[in-house]
Amino acid sequence: MNQIVSSIRKLYPVSDASIDELTDKMTRLELPKKHTLIRSGVVERNYFFIEKGLTRSYCLFDGNEVTSWFSQEGEITFSMLGSYHKKPGFENVDLLEDSIIYALPVDVLNLLYETNLEIANWSRLVHQNAFLELEIRHIAMVSQSAKERYENFIKEKPAIMRRVNLGYIASFLGMSQVSLSRLRAKHIF
Q1: pTM of the complete model
Q2: Is residue 165 within a helix (H) or strand (E), and if so which, with residue range?
Q3: What pairs with residue 57 in β-bridges?
């Protein structure tokens, strides 16, 4: 659980006692590549902490998968509608690698928010950072060229660039795989 604890403490100075309180309530899952962790249309009531592996969040539009997010070691993935409103989510989350994941029920984390200020503050920062990243991505999709989006992606997420197939990255960046291949061929570091 080193990746998870390290990531938590990078964001907020959570004490050993609070880490223990959080992690004691988690369930370890060892899951294979291609496993669907979260399904659209289902009320998912867990947060998933990634110790090892990589996930891809995506929605289906007219039969096409549109990638919306990647999560890797030390990060969390969850269904916003399930977590916040107890409603069926619209995204699927698949594992792109064999993974070690820790599941924590939403209700358990919500109780920790009420009793543990460190956990509440850490989670607030997780959600603030995710919403900021979503806003930046949204603005980039309407204001930047495909080339600029690609260059920012490889600068900000080099590990994901090396671990994920081009089709998923192209979808995330809002372009075709052919366009992404052309950009990669022209790009010199």
Answers
A1: 0.93
A2: none
A3: 69, 93
